[in-house]
Specification:
This protein has ten helices and ten strands. It is α/β, with parallel strands linked by helices and 245 residues long. It holds the Pfam family PEP_mutase.
Amino acid sequence: MTAAALKALHVPGKPLVLANVWDADTAKLVEAAGFPAIATSSVAVAAALGFADGERAPAGEMFAAAARIANAVGVPLTVDAESGYGLSGAELAGRLLDAGAVGCNFEDTDHATGQVRAVAEQAQRIAALREAAGDGLVINARVDSFRGVDAKEALSDGVARAKAYLEAGADCVYPIHLRSPELLAEFVQGVGGAVNAPVWPGGPGLEGLAELGVARVSLGGGLWDHLRKQFEKTVAAVAGGKLPY
């Protein structure tokens, strides 16, 4: 499946909904449920491999997991590539395309320092990735500048950052830590391009997010976390002598 097919699914007001997966089996289930695209969650993939999130898993293992997922499904795959694992734009594009991905998340957090990169630096990184990938990847540029700050005060800077990323070649921007429906609506209007919204507890839900004009909705690690808690309860019951079936 092509990047063009994935990009076409990003429709403001009628967003692409992504139930993020962590292995080939969960990817098959998501495809069978009728989702038109598959996305990975870095926290979930890393956990399944025995590592913490934040680029602590070896890049080779993460790309190998992505390749297994791509080989298991027939719909477009977008990979959570975190902050690029220290790879150049050309190296990252090559690894993603070799794995069978046609899209990626690309964060502006520097995991070596824990800080959000300067706008100009991240824009250059996005431009390098775009140049190397051509039209072969849908780049979803994550905007992490809303983390741990007053979202209202950070809004204008976040919008400017998102615009810079779109101008550099990103197809969509993802303010993952922006959890106010009102501010998210302002962000969407201010950016004037495709916006990916997260799903969060107590949030407006899928219909509400669509009404805000977003073009993409991600469950991120939420689905993995929900199912992991269910599994934890089930095995605790088994340990207590109660079989679930």
